[in-house]
Amino acid sequence: MKKALITGITGQDGSYLAEFLLAKGYEVHGIKRRSSSFNTQRIDHIFEDPHVPDARLKLHYGDLTDSSNLTRIIEQVQPDEVYNLGAQSHVAVSFESPEYTADVSGLGTLRILEAIRLLGLEKTTRFYQASTSELYGLVQETPQRETTPFYPRSPYAVAKLYSYWMTVNYREAYGMYACNGILFNHESPRRGETFVTRKITRSLCNIALGLEPCLYMGNIDALRDWGHAKDYVRMQWMMLQQDEPDDFVIATGKQYSVRQFIEWSAAELGITLRYEGSGVDEIGIVEKIEGDQAPKLSVGDVILRIDPRYFRPAEVETLLGDPSKAKEKLGWVPEISTHEMCVEMVSEDLRIAKQSALLRAHGYNAALSTEK
Ligand code: NDP
Ligand code: GDR
């Protein structure tokens, strides 16, 4: 039985990758952080009691800032494959905590690579690094491919640039099987609530049901290439199954604006928006309501405002990936379109919002009865 170790198993990608690898028959080890409250919601459904003798999901307490802890876990697990998904992954937060971001998202990668090497596993353990389209930042070529020059625009992106090159360096210096997946944005109903897509779907569902008054946004004209996390974790595994290690861009090859994503999400709720004003004074007003998904809204309600606090000190305005190499060499193509993903996210957030609305109105028992 193959063994995989996932850092960041409690995150969006970690949870999907763990499911994927368990289905492939792997024994899956994950590193989770100690926190004062539970942080395993995304993997609770695949958690197995460690007392069960053949449990294949095993969790270890650890932190990417702690070399001795990482070395001990890797020594104990002796993994065939390590997926380094752990990171302080929020770009805007990285401007607030640049040093911590560098420690986790930059040096954390080095700590894992060095642990593999010092334990003498560099010829047996395969390593996947969660690199990012944020490396392209101020884009030098469109669409972006593996050969496009990097120009990072945030402490997060600079930390990930360090990790990218460390991964290449350990491959070249020590013959390690180490790959960078340069992944463009990917989302899902499990996306963290403060990333833009989830913030939009969650807020609009709450607004439709009267749980929140307004969606406050930053730069809604930013352009992104958004895929589905399920498609992207499949590719992370595929990258480690090749004869030779290599780096790949993973993207859909299609680009939309944040504004478009807002409109798709609103449309799923039967809401048509009209915009007035410009810049930080722009507002989104309900122009039309169809169906019964937004019972608490009326035509004329202002449900979208711009809040300058969500603008970043340096913005990445546009990203569009060219996944040709992944398609040609690995036969990978994304199966879920951006719009289909948006529909799935709204549907899931609407279900959650309905539960919250019921809880607010009637309490616990009423919410449970709608689950059936
Ligand atoms: P998430 O933010 O959802 O998950 C990040 C994971 O890292 C969580 O499990 C988190 O733990 C863990 N983590 C954070 N800090 C530490 C630390 N100090 N030590 C150990 N673990 C830590 O990210 P995604 O799942 O979306 O992304 C996975 C990886 O891919 C990240 O490295 C991200 O930077 C990168 N990436 C993501 C893209 C995307 O669009 N999603 C695109 C390109 C790259 P906890 O749950 O306790 O917070
Ligand atoms: P990003 O994702 O920075 O691309 O990083 P995010 O969803 O945070 O932002 C996308 C774009 O939307 C604009 N935006 C807002 N963003 C947030 N979070 N909140 C807002 O209110 C808002 N308004 C507008 C942003 O300015 C930006 O242009 C993600 C992370 O998952 C990284 O870890 C990963 O490496 C990259 O994707 C690829």
TrEMBL record:
One GO MF term attached to the UniProt entry: NADP+ binding
Cofactor(s) required for function per UniProt: NADP(+)
Keyword Nucleotidyltransferase: no
EC number: 4.2.1.47
Keywords: Lyase, NADP, Nodulation
Signal peptide residue numbers: none
Keyword Lyase: yes
InterPro entries: GDP_Man_deHydtase (IPR006368), NAD(P)-bd_dom (IPR016040), NAD(P)-bd_dom_sf (IPR036291)
CDD domains in the record: GDP_MD_SDR_e (cd05260)
Database matches in NCBIfam families: gmd
Free-text function comment from the UniProt entry: Catalyzes the conversion of GDP-D-mannose to GDP-4-dehydro-6-deoxy-D-mannose.
Name this polypeptide is given: GDP-mannose 4,6-dehydratase
Gene it is expressed from: gmd
